Amino acid sequence: xxxxxHVSFEYExxxxxxxxxxxxxxxxxxxxxxxxxxxxxxxxxxxxxxxxRPTDGTVRVFGLKTVKENLxxxxxxxxxxxxDPDDQMFMPTVLDDMMFAPLNYGMSREEAGAxxxxxxxxxxxxxxxxxxxxxxSGGEKRMAAIATILTMDPEMILMDEPSSSLDPCNxxxxxxxxxxxxQTKLITSHDLDMILDTCSxxxxxxxxxxxADGPAETILTDKALLEANxxxxxxxxxxxx
Length: 241
Description:
The chain is an alpha/beta fold. It has helices at 41-48, 71-77, 94-104, 109-122, 138-150, 168-180, 192-198, 216-220, 223-228, 235-238; strands at residues 2-12, 15-25, 30-34, 56-61, 64-65, 78-81, 156-160, 184-188, 201-206, 209-215.
């Protein structure tokens, strides 16, 4: 579903943020993208969505190159959950936000309403339907942001730090929801416990390059590898080291 073929990207000439990255993510995979601050994780997400164009190499999503004429087709099939739900939830109520994309993609109001109800039931969030966005908790808003994406039946979901700034109860609610989603998922996070809980594969980015790519349990239990790339073991494993 995602293919990077020797991709490089630089904001300033001669200063690559991503350098010669090649990777493939297949349908149904749940992949954690980890790395220290500035490693290039967010740049990779933006390249997938066509918000940035590679300086060198080719990015393909659903077999389509991320060129201007393909971006609408790609974005219709891929949902993006932003790190800060306030950047995503811009309508007055949860219902308004969930209806926005389906209506703008041509669904009738009846079809969109039925889809909203089905997603809210799936996530056990019916109680949020008519709530004002500025009157719900951070965890509820994060869940509502995921719900808005699901109304479009995406084949793939990209998530940027989905558990950041959440209390333990809301964090667990979000993790359980992510684990239950059948779509292909690519998740960036510094919360390695959450990545271990939700992803079967991990790609470790360091200095704009892939430092490791393999089973989540193998990479996230490798203390020397993580420390060499300015990271630490997940908290649930740190006591065993």
